[in-house]
Recover the amino acids of this structure.
């Protein structure tokens, strides 16, 4: 890619401890320089002066710490390479962002991705003559994985993926989406694939056009063309605005509609009710380019959302976040699209940076 990005290094805890030590030293030095207070002085006034002085000292220390942190920036040259054996662990880490705590053989899946090289892109730090283990860390992964290439000898990780997809669809998707996944599994013609598009959170989107263009170019050379593509997106949905209580239930479906009955609802009607509530909520995509998929007119797609906050460790950057006074809970969106929508998505993403 040849793009240079900056990444902070150094332990935050060490910086905080150094700041505290400097503050203590400055306080001691200041006290030694100060003359003994007069007996007539007001204790409350002295306390206020000490507090003001401490605040000023703390600000000075903060400024010094910020300057020191600026000097602790390192330039990394991120480049795109086809998947290789050295990337196995990094690819697994990327896949865990898609499949949170899922019972899927991700190591075998990573090996399957590597076996398809040169198809696919792994974003890594540019190599030099002194390569270390950190050089092989994956910062992004973009590729496709065939889901139904060999019906008689299906790899275990493919079986695992379908079990995962069907379980999620059974809990939160309309019946037609569940049946669609079953049809893909049974086809065995190699015309369905999983699109994997993962990057570290908040990674610069400057890399997207070149990555999408590379994937689109690869697909034109495939003997067997994809007709159906499944894509699992990462997104966050705001609480409130009709979505209260929906975060623990089913997700949003593009084919769902709010129920008209006000009496006791069946499972299908409950799913549609939750879908309608989520559809009116604010949504933020972890990958900014993902929203474009639903603005396109070419082809067709269906999708549903499912909550994953129970699968994320509390305090994780992928857990619930608060923005402008609103809480955004983590979800995944399972999209099933045809080849026309997928090609239009890749084409749009390759034309320019989407923010």
């Amino acid at each position: 890619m040849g793009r240079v990005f900056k990444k902070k290094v150094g332990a935050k805890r060490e910086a905080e401890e150094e700041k505290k030590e400097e503050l203590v030293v400055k306080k001691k030095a200041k006290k030694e320089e100060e003359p003994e207070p007069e007996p007539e002085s007001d204790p409350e006034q002295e306390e206020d002066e000490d507090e003001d002085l401490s605040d000023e000292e703390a600000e000075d220390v903060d400024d010094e710490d910020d300057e020191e942190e600026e000097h602790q920036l390192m330039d990394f040259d991120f480049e795109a390479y086809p998947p290789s054996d050295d990337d196995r662990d990094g690819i697994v880490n990327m896949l865990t962002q898609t499949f949170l705590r899922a019972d899927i053989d991700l190591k075998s899946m990573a090996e399957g991705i590597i076996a398809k090289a040169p198809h696919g892109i792994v974003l890594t730090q540019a190599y030099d003559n002194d390569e270390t283990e950190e050089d092989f860390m994956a910062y992004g992964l973009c590729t496709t994985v065939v889901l139904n290439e060999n019906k008689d000898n299906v790899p275990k990780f493919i079986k695992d993926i379908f079990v995962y997809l069907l379980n999620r669809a059974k809990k939160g998707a309309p019946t037609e989406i569940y049946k669609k996944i079953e049809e893909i599994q049974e086809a065995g013609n190699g015309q369905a694939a999983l699109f994997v598009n993962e990057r570290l959170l908040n990674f610069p989107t400057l890399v997207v056009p070149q990555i999408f263009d590379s994937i689109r170019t690869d697909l034109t050379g495939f003997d067997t063309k994809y007709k159906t593509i499944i894509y699992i997106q990462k997104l966050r949905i705001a609480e409130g605005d009709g979505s209260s209580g929906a975060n623990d239930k089913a997700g949003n479906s593009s084919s769902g509609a709010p129920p008209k009955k006000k009496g006791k609802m069946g499972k299908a009607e409950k799913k549609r009710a939750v879908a309608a509530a989520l559809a009116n909520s604010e949504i933020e995509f972890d990958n900014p380019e993902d929203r474009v998929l639903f603005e396109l007119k070419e082809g067709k797609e269906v999708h549903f959302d499912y909550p994953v906050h129970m699968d994320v460790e509390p305090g994780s950057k992928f857990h619930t976040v608060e923005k402008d006074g609103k809480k955004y809970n983590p979800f995944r969106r399972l999209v099933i699209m045809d080849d026309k929508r997928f090609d239009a998505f890749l084409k749009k993403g390759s034309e320019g940076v989407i923010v």
In short: The chain has nine helices and ten strands. The mean pLDDT is 77. The beta strands are 3-8, 73-81, 121-125, 138-146, 192-199, 228-238, 283-285, 301-307, 321-323, 326-338. The radius of gyration is 26 Å.
